[in-house]
Every structure is written in structure tokens, then in C-alpha cells.
Amino acid sequence: MKQNITESYFIDQIVGDEYTSMTGEGARALFHYLEQLEDDCDFEIEFDRVAIRCEWNEYTTIEEALEQYNTINNAEELSDNTTIIYIPNTDRIILQEF
Predict the structure, then answer these.
(1) What pLDDT does 65 receive?
(2) Nearest-angstrom CA–CA distance, 89 and 85
(3) Is the Cβ–Cβ distance between 82 and 45 less than 8 Å?
(4) What is the 3-state secondary structure (H, E, C) of the chain?
(5) What pTM value is reported for the model?
(6) Domain ranges within the chain, ordered by starting residue
(7) What b-and-e string marks burial along 44-74, b requiring 16 or more CB atoms within 10 Å of the CB?
(8) What is the pLDDT along the chain (98 residues), one digit of tens a residue?
């Protein structure tokens, strides 16, 4: 059984409480990324709020993200190891944690 998730529902579920640091803009960018991934790969992603919130994290800058990974020296190395989603019109990014 699959559930269709709207953008607004997704954002409400991901941003919905004090346990997440993701902004509404970040959640929107992640939603669109996941929708595009579904289209490109021709499969459905099952919505799991907890898994998404554990797997993806928003950072204010790429430099802030790099501070979390002492073996990664720059954005290029970071993108070689994980998915980076750039949030439009900001310096913020979302990383798939690894």
C-alpha cells in the first residue's frame, strides 16, 4: 500500500517539531529532489518521516557541513561521497548523511 504525499504534507512532517533543524525551504528542496529521483528511476519511495529525518540533514553552508567530516576537504570530495542538494536562493545545503 502506497500513500501519495503532497508537498505541503511532506514539509509539515519534516519540519513539524523541535527534533529537526530542517527549514521549510530545505524540506521543499528535498521533496522535489525525491520526486525527481522517483521519476528518473521509475520507482516509488515509501514515505518514512523518521528515516528521512535521520538520513538527511540541512546545513547553513557547505563549510559547516565539511566541519562534520574530518576526512573530507572540499565540496568536490563531499559530492563524491554523498548527495548534496543545494537549496535555491540560499547558501544552505542538504546532505544525505554517510
Answers:
(1) 94
(2) 12
(3) no
(4) CCCCCCHHHHHHHHHCCCCCCCCHHHHHHHHHHHHHHHHHHCCCCCCCHHHHHHHEEEECCHHHHHHCCCCCCCHHHHHHHCCEEECCCCCCEEEECC
(5) 0.90
(6) 7-96
(7) eeebeeeebbeebbbbeebeebbeeeeebee
(8) 567 899 999 999 999 777 778 999 999 999 999 999 999 999 999 999 999 999 999 999 999 999 999 899 999 999 999 999 999 999 999 999 97
- Give first-to-last CA distance, the chain, whole Å: 29
Dihedral pair phi/psi, residue 87, rounded to 5°: -85, 120
Rounded to a whole number of angstroms, the CA Rg of the chain reads 14
CB atoms within 10 A of CB 23: 18
Contact of 95 with 84, CB cutoff 8 Å: yes
Residue type, 26: G
